[in-house]
User: What shape does this take?
Amino acid sequence: MEEKKRKYKYLILAIVIAVFVVFSVLYYVYWSIIKYVLNTTEGAEFAIVSAAIRIVILSVMSFILFRKWFKQEVIYTSDAYFLFALFFMILTIGKLYDLLYYLILISDAFGELFMLMLCKVRYYIIIINILPILYIGLEATMTFVSVYVKDLSKKQFSKIRLRIIFIILVVLTIIITLATSITFLINVLPFFTLAIFVMIAIMFLFMYKNKRLSQANGLIIGIAFLYFIITNLLRSLISVIALTQPSFIVVADVLDISANVLMFIGFISKPSYAK
Assistant: This one.
């Protein structure tokens, strides 16, 4: 088991280094644009600082959860701690990309086709980010289905869960890939992702009610995801204003950080029935 832990530590470290290198190169390549935005757009520096603070907070959350996972005697990639840590890790990567995308968008230096490509990448990351939490959340359906289907084994359910996740991934990927405008992605795709977030929130609340999750507090996580949905709706409105007044992005980041912190509290807290 120690050998297995060591391999995962090296793998995670390699991913972190790769992400650092990739974004270092990207920010270096687009540094002239970033510099231009900072020099010509009032309030842009506040947006960068608030985004950087959020990235650091998310990174720390991911690190703490990975540490909790490695402290277990036996580790599996299906463990809640690992999936929660992976969620925050991908979210951190997403925010690194969001900041770059936002600065390029404000600069208005590229055509619509290039910006559409960048926007698609942004939504690909969002979809991938959903998967670890969706994997855990679908555990709630086992409780519901097992009441009516007595002969459904855990192995069969695992296969069904993977198929559901695969179908969601394929459908959303096709929608993003075939999108012909940024307007379509911004106005249509969030309805699909928010619907998934609602489903995840319900699943965690259902797991808490039926005492199916002992490593985390499903009640807090469910509430956090509902709050996260609200902050995302508000963020969409604020982002429109932030294109001309970047300082408003600070408000969106504060809302998002508060939702993420609430999720994290739920992830590291045990429910009353597990104590």
The chain has a mean pLDDT of 82. The CA atoms of residues 5 and 70 lie 7 Å apart. The radius of gyration is 20 Å. The chain has ten helices and no strands.
